[in-house]
Design brief:
globular; UDP N-Acetylglucosamine Acyltransferase, domain 1; 2 domains; alpha/beta; about 425 residues
């Protein structure tokens, strides 16, 4: 795998994940109370022995740069690296990234300097565990110019994805972006060709792109230089190359979740608490997910009831009930609180106990969840100050709302409390 260079696409402004992307790039959003989204593809690369990794970003990349610098440092005797390539304006390219392909195109001058055989293109907002070595081996054994990683899906989800058709050898022969009706039924394929059993193939007769691609080095360079008006891989570059190039499909049959929206992000995090076996597990020695070491103390639970939940490092919980929730780093939850089906991202720093007590005596609100508060089906971003006897329960069952002036949004019925927000005592959301 020394002959492979990975490129992780950090995405644009992250509008679908807003307001979680208000102060950070999409790959820097917290995950599972401990990690960040970028840790997933980077860890998959490291576990697959692919150690040359670039991350392309252009929005709010300060915290992402800091995380990568602190989390991933390879030995000086290795040629491995994880580096951020931020969008930049030059005399030749005065504009920002216009799409996934355009982002790579603007750094071709750098990528061409590497003596590698393949470029591996990855997305920065998916949750999955994958051995890219098998993907690369399939690409090489079929003599493919481009290989796409695909997942089999059923009819209920098919119209939400870009679908493709394959021939008997696994070669991609047709694309269709989010088809419906008769166009959807025409995209059915025999997925037994990719290794599914007849029963599985009947349940999942469509194949969708995961947004993970392997290109032969020169093929990627030629396509990006030749099609200067095409700015996106999935919508333009790859569909347009099927006739002239050998484009193959590689079946991925493990857990995969696109967590680019608030609803999908919330669902994927809460699913980590499911028993007896969550759909994705961080408890796997053979392929660990790496992140920054913070050297935090163990969490302290004082007379608490914890039910099917994840509690991050360095937390202090006192006389509260937490159920089906994920609690992030350094989170403080005070007495008589109820947290259900929620994601609390924690805090970036500890507020000194003397300062916290002064906040209370002066009528101000300390970082954390105040006494007697109830939080259900919500995401509370970092450093939020939730006062006493607050109810964050979406009482009116609102589906969409933007109340930035009050410190929260509602997306798909999920209340999202902003980073650094202050929710006053007794407030009901």
């Amino acid at each position: 795998m020394k002959r492979v260079l990975a490129i992780i696409l950090g995405g644009g402004a992250g509008t679908r994940l807003y307001p979680l992307t208000k102060y950070r790039a999409k790959p820097a959003v917290s995950l599972a109370g401990k990690y960040r989204l970028i840790d997933i593809p980077v860890s998959n690369c490291i576990n697959s022995e692919i150690l040359k990794i670039y991350v392309l970003t252009q929005f709010n990349s300060a915290s992402l740069n800091r995380h990568i610098a602190r989390a991933y440092s390879f030995s000086q005797f290795s040629d491995g690296f994880v580096e951020v390539l931020a969008a930049q304006q030059t005399p030749e390219n005065p504009s920002w990234f216009q799409g996934t392909a355009d982002a790579v195109r603007k750094y071709l001058w750098l990528l061409e300097s590497f003596d590698v055989d393949e470029f591996l293109i990855l997305s920065g907002d998916h949750l999955y565990r994958m051995d890219y070595r098998l993907f690369i081996e399939r690409h090489r054994s079929t003599g493919a110019d481009i290989t796409l990683s695909v997942v089999p899906i059923g009819e209920d989800l098919a119209s939400s994805f870009g679908l493709m058709k394959i021939d008997g050898s696994g070669r991609v022969v047709d694309f269709y972006e989010k088809p419906k009706g008769d166009a959807l039924r025409q995209m059915q394929v025999d997925t037994t060709t990719l290794g599914l059993t007849p029963d599985q193939a009947k349940q999942k007769p469509y194949i969708a792109s995961m947004g993970i691609y392997t290109f032969k080095r020169q093929v990627l360079i030629d396509l990006l230089k030749r099609s200067l008006d095409q700015t996106d891989f999935g919508k333009e570059i790859i569909p347009g190359s099927a006739k002239d190039y050998n484009v193959q499909a590689y079946l991925f049959d493990g857990y995969w979740e696109d967590i680019g929206t608030i609803e999908a992000f919330y669902r994927a995090n809460i699913a980590l608490t499911y028993q007896p076996q969550p759909p994705f597990s961080f408890y796997e020695d053979s392929a660990p997910i790496y992140t920054r070491s913070r050297y935090l103390p163990p969490s302290k639970l004082l007379d608490c009831q914890i039910i099917e939940s994840i509690i991050g490092e360095g937390c202090i919980l006192k006389n509260c009930r937490v159920a089906n929730s994920v609690v992030g780093l350094r989170q403080r939850i005070h007495a008589d609180c109820v947290i259900e089906s929620s994601l609390l991202m924690g805090s970036d720093y500890y507020e000194p106990s003397s300062e916290s007590s002064q906040h209370l005596t002066r009528g101000k609100i300390p970082i954390g969840i105040g006494e007697g508060s109830v939080i259900r089906k919500a995401i509370v971003d970092k450093n939020a100050r939730v006062g006493r006897n607050v109810q964050i329960v979406n009482k009116e069952r609102v589906e969409e709302a933007e109340r930035e002036d009050l410190g929260f949004y509602i997306r798909s019925g999920i209340v999202v409390v902003l980073k650094n927000a202050v929710i006053p005592d007794g407030m009901i959301i």
